Input
Amino acid sequence: MTEQTILTDTSFWEFVRSQRFVVVHFGAVWNGYDAEMRRTIESQIPDHLAQKIAFATLDIDPPAHHEICRRHQILNVPFLAFYRDGSLARTSTGLLTSDLLIEHLKELLDGPAQTAHDSPSHLRR
Output
């Protein structure tokens, strides 16, 4: 089972920067699609990927989290943000099948590292 770290506005950026590969699930506890996405992440990620990637979740509802959501231009959930070396590598909006999620995770691990120069300016910190 893949563990997901619960993030807050105070822990978000430190967590993203402290891991080589990170996937953050932005969601809401009241959203059924987020519950399904959470179950997919927890139960469908092969161990060889889960051991290399840090998974986390951020609740979009607390006002203190709205700035992070605004920076990521989140309009709908579930929303996944994939980070490599502290830089945003890709995002995905909507419920993903386990096969597509695994494909995105493999691309995260195998793709070239983005430089801070390449990352969107609204996400640089």
The chain has five helices and five strands. Residues 5-119 form a domain with the Glutaredoxin fold (CATH 3.40.30.10). The mean pLDDT is 91. The first helix runs from residue 12 to 18.
